[in-house]
Amino acid sequence: MKKIVMTGGGTAGHVTPNIALFPALQKEGYEISYIGSYEGIEKRLIEEQGVPYYGISSGKLRRYFDPKNFSDPFKVLKGYHQSIRLLKKLKPDVVFSKGGFVSVPVVLAASRCHIPAIIHESDLTPGLANRIAIPKATKVCCNFPETMAHVPEDKAVLTGTPIRAELLSGDAGRAFALCNFTDSAKPALLIVGGSSGSRAINTAIRDLLPELIKNYNVIHLCGKGNVDTSLNAIAGYAQFEYANEELADLFALSSLVISRAGANAICELLALRKPNILIPLPAAASRGDQILNANSFRSQGFSYVLEEEELTNTTLLEAIDHVFHKKDAYIDAMEHSKVTNSIETIMGLIREASSHK
């Protein structure tokens, strides 16, 4: 039986693509183990899947001053030695890393143990953790054509992001009932602002509600603690803090999606062929990766991009009208994407690496 060790953590975005690969790996008989941090979000998510989980010491490597800069390198070094011991114990044929700082010592340890390591980079430009790990990687899976220029030519492979199979099989009827909608003739507009929500997007949507519900059923995932109960009685408007299992059904019902531009989120929109408006997280609140992601999707004809600094009731309504009336062109562009089957492409790399160990 082939064995694989997977790693990645810090955010759900560093874990869910790994989970999306589990069924294909299990179908081919791989024995899966997971290395993550002691108490990161990845621990709960992986243990829920019934996959053996091993925690290691991890620390963040920062490019700015922080008192933890003096202690975290020792945590990373400890994690590296723990990873070496784990890999010698587990004896995997290959390591697959989705990134995040916990993955750095695991990839470096794989190189030390002569185990091939495959890295997945979600964003258009590699983050610091993957930049450290790439020299020790066998292959680097890329979401965007532009990423290939930041990775050694012999390592870069355009794969896209693995998407959970259940997202592709939602039931629009279940979503319609869940939202208590009554007019099935109206197309549905889905707003996804991230797990914590976006104040700017939430405010703009709610300001526009009287106008929007004339033509659309509106599904608003507004983030934890952001439900406005005074709006519950508005026909054609359904608000939720977040969606888990229901997300596939909500996607199935939706004709147009408004979303942040996190790499995993927009790859799900591409896989589902959903016309979309991307409102990336501003550069002042991030390293600017969402802006780069969004601009790439705009240049490929997949998305309409509206910068948060330009977000007003007028510009958002104009964007919705534009995308809805041009939705067939957006769908056609996505149909012609070079990223067609991410899971099978990545599985091919895993098979190849496993056979050459």
TrEMBL record:
Gene: murG
Binding-site positions, UDP-N-acetyl-alpha-D-glucosamine: T11, A12, G13, R164, S195, Q290
GO CC list: plasma membrane
Reactions listed under catalytic activity: di-trans,octa-cis-undecaprenyl diphospho-N-acetyl-alpha-D-muramoyl-L-alanyl-D-glutamyl-meso-2,6-diaminopimeloyl-D-alanyl-D-alanine + UDP-N-acetyl-alpha-D-glucosamine = di-trans,octa-cis-undecaprenyl diphospho-[N-acetyl-alpha-D-glucosaminyl-(1->4)]-N-acetyl-alpha-D-muramoyl-L-alanyl-D-glutamyl-meso-2,6-diaminopimeloyl-D-alanyl-D-alanine + UDP + H(+)
Record protein name field: UDP-N-acetylglucosamine--N-acetylmuramyl-(pentapeptide) pyrophosphoryl-undecaprenol N-acetylglucosamine transferase
Main localization (coarse): membrane
All residue ranges annotated as the Glycosyl transferase family 28 C-terminal domain in the record: 189-338
Any single biological process term in GO: peptidoglycan biosynthetic process
Family, as annotated: Belongs to the glycosyltransferase 28 family. MurG subfamily.
GO MF annotation terms: UDP-N-acetyl-D-glucosamine:N-acetylmuramoyl-L-alanyl-D-glutamyl-meso-2,6-diaminopimelyl-D-alanyl-D-alanine-diphosphoundecaprenol 4-beta-N-acetylglucosaminlytransferase activity; undecaprenyldiphospho-muramoylpentapeptide beta-N-acetylglucosaminyltransferase activity
NCBIfam families reported for this sequence: murG (TIGR01133), PRK12446.1 (NF009102)
Pathway the protein acts in: Cell wall biogenesis; peptidoglycan biosynthesis
EC main group: transferase
Topology with respect to the bilayer: Peripheral membrane protein
CDD domains: GT28_MurG
Domain Glycosyltransferase family 28 N-terminal residues, every copy: 4-140
PANTHER family (alphabetical): UDP-N-ACETYLGLUCOSAMINE--N-ACETYLMURAMYL-(PENTAPEPTIDE) PYROPHOSPHORYL-UNDECAPRENOL N-ACETYLGLUCOSAMINE TRANSFERASE, UDP-N-ACETYLGLUCOSAMINE--N-ACETYLMURAMYL-(PENTAPEPTIDE) PYROPHOSPHORYL-UNDECAPRENOL N-ACETYLGLUCOSAMINE TRANSFERASE 1
Record keywords, A-Z: Cell cycle, Cell division, Cell membrane, Cell shape, Cell wall biogenesis/degradation, Glycosyltransferase, Membrane, Peptidoglycan synthesis, Transferase
Localization per Swiss-Prot or TrEMBL: Cell membrane
Highest taxon in the source lineage: Bacteria
